[in-house]
Structures are given as C-alpha cells and as structure tokens.
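The protein record reproduced below.
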Amino acid sequence: MKYSIEKQETYSVFKVDEEKLDSIKAPDFKSRFVTLQAEGVKSLIVNLSSVKYIDSSGLSALLVGNRLFRENGGSFVLIGINEHVMKLVSISQLDKVLDILPTVEEAVDTVILNDIQDKLGQDNSKD
C-alpha cells in the first residue's frame, strides 16, 4: 500500500496514496494503524483525498483505526473524503461514528482541542 506519514509532536498525518481501499489493501491499512499506535502516535489524521473507492473492508479498517486511537485517549480524524466515498460512509452510518472534517487545519485544531480537554479532565479528576 502506498502512503506517507508526517509525524508531529502530538499527532501524525497519514496520507493514503491509493485510489482503492478494498479487501486487498485493508489488512495492510489496519496493520499500519496498529504499528503507529504501538510506536506512540496518540492521534492520527487520515487523509483520504486520493481514495476514489472504498469497500466494506476499507470501512472496517477505518473503524479499527478509530477504536485503536480513541481507546488510548487520542483522536482519529478523517479528511479529504470525496463525494463517492462519503456516500458509502453515510449509507453505512459511519458518519455518526467517525470524525470527518474537510481540511488538515480543521483536523489539527480538533486534535489539539481534544488533547486540551483530555488534560483538563485528568487535572479535574485529581482534585
């Protein structure tokens, strides 16, 4: 699977450089999420702007990523979803489960805000 990763201090941007995210590529996609999470990436922004087609295996991989990063107090945000992919996400009602934003900037703002809220929640629980 072709992709690139841009690592920052509190998040990473994972850009998928494939037109199809299907049953052939989904297992590799899932394993990349597991590896990144194991390497200490707390929050992940997934750029799907190159993806023109996704099937149920690809959607399942996104759900795995969402669970992995959120379970550990991080964020998992999708950006750059085209109209066709968004239709499939909506039909499967995953738009109610996944954070989907139009741009990297908005995703970064969301990740930072979630991180601040998480830290504030931890501080309040110590009182």
Observations:
- The longest helix spans residues 104-126.
- Residues 3-126 form a domain with the Transcription Regulator spoIIAA fold (CATH 3.30.750.24).
- The CA atoms of residues 23 and 57 lie 5 Å apart.
